Amino acid sequence: MRAVEIIERKRDGLELSGEEIRWLVHSYVAGSVPDYQMAAWLMAVYVRGMSMAETISLTEAMVDSGERVDMSSVPGIKVDKHSTGGVGDTVTLILVPLMASAGLVCAKMSGRSLGHTGGTIDKLESIPGFSTELPLAEILKQAAAVGAVVAEHTAELAPADRLLYALRDVTGTVGSIPLIVGSILSKKIAGGGDAVVLDVKCGHGAFMETREEALQLARTLVGVGNKLGKRFSALITGMEQPLGRRVGNALEVSQAVQVLSGEGPDDLREVTLALGAELLALAQEESDLTYARNKLEAHLQEGRARDKFAQLVRAQGGDERILDHPELLPRAGRQEVIEAPRSGYVQHLDARSVGLAAGLVGAGRTEKGAAVAPDAGVELVAKVGDQAVAGEPLAVLHVAQDSLVGQAAGLLREAYTIGDEPPAQPPLIIDAVRSEE
After folding, report:
1. Which end of the chain has the smaller Cβ count within 10 Å, N or C?
2. What is the mean pLDDT of the segment spanning 103-107?
3. What is the 3-state secondary structure of the chain?
4. pTM score, two decimals?
């Protein structure tokens, strides 16, 4: 085969065979297809799209570009979760121990973020001593012993995704649904879980801004995932305003502990419980979603999920005292208070602006490999529907980078819209896509 012929066929809107897609992906990983040809093919896919059969072939080729995690030696039903990303998205830190407390095994491989806030790995590494670079043998051992583990993606897992995403990031082809599906599912399928719930964020603080875009992505993800032999379902959740009240690495860990202790913000708890109920149903442990949700809520209230989180932290070398002493987490030496310019009700809180503000004070990274500040971020005193009082705090910036604090403060002020009437609350759970659909 020749790469140029495959590029031309996709450019002209023709459907590629599974053999053509597999050859191209594996040749690129092997280094025999250069970046400039793969970039041309990615742009052709972005413009022309892919059929369901092509998307399945692409995902399979990406999975088979590396190793698969064999979890057959670990007793129990293995479950996993993926989020398309949002601001204040602390769900994984709560959901992993919560599912383990319900008797399932949740061995999640996550990544670092390239964006305004840190990824799951960045958040957990703000816990003193916590290690996320675990060999596969250790991941399997902890999964069997604790039922919960969160580790960094290994280089051997779907290497095609790492290479293709780096190229998509600099060629304007990130927003293609078939390419997004291949990226997400290749890692989830290679990760060895039996059932996976997908949290597709929707709103101005998410990659998919409209319900229609989010539904299209969710349907394709679930359809392809189920065709490839795994049990998938997806919830479309709101991201017009941040989830929870803390944005930033150590800040989000402390908030996760609150929820695991039966407290914390209602919206973060509700989204976590909804995703957890979906996982129990997918694992065929509980078909009644309301009963499943109530069962998991009891695990939060009774401290069972908190105990599992303590075991997870201890097993990965972290200081479990942070559960009772959050002051042991990194804390910024400077706080900048953002005051309400007038009294009224918070009508709107722009998630993207909050995330960008957190990044400017050090919570995120602008290039791969850069460090994040574990203590930086934003604390939201007021959210949509809350009353604001002129001169009283709306939010607090936790500052690690002083040079951009003025710009960050400006973004936060602009993120808030205050009016005279109480607004309707933005929806948390917008829609669901399940395998039977």
Report:
1. C
2. 95
3. CCHHHHHHHHHCCCCCCHHHHHHHHHHHHHCCCCHHHHHHHHHHHHHHCCCHHHHHHHHHHHHCCCECCCCCCCCCCEEEEEECCCCCCCHHHHHHHHHHHCCCEEEEEECCCCCCCCCHHHHHCCCCCCCCCCCHHHHHHHHHHHCEEEEECCCCECHHHHHHHHHHHCCCCCCCHHHHHHHHHHHHHHCCCCEEEEEEEECCCCCECCHHHHHHHHHHHHHHHHHCCCEEEEEEEECCCCCCCEECHHHHHHHHHHHHCCCCCHHHHHHHHHHHHHHHHHCCCCCCHHHHHHHHHHHHHCCHHHHHHHHHHHHCCCCHHHHCCHHHCCCCCEEEEEECCCCEEEEEECHHHHHHHHHHCCCCCCCCCCCCCCCCEEEECCCCCCEECCCCEEEEEEECCHHHHHHHHHHHHHHEEEECCCCCCCCCEEEEECCCC
4. 0.93
Catalytic site positions: 82, 161, 168, 183, 187
Alpha carbon distance 309, 127 (integer Å): 12
Q: Say whether both 248 and 270 belong to one domain.
A: yes
pLDDT tens track for 45-77: 999 999 999 999 999 999 999 988 889 999 999
> Are 197 and 411 spatial neighbours (Cβ–Cβ below 8 Å)?
no
**Residues 139 and 234 grouped into a single domain:** yes
The range of the structural domain enclosing residue 97 comes to 78-324
Tokens in use for 18?
A: 């599974």
Q: Are residues 159 and 285 in the same domain?
A: yes
Radius of gyration of the chain (CA): 22
pLDDT over 90 at 78, yes or no:
yes
- The domain tally of the chain equals 3
Per-residue pLDDT tens for 224-265? 999 998 999 999 999 999 999 999 999 999 999 999 999 999
Q: Lowest-pLDDT range, 159-173, 323-337, 381-395? A: 159-173
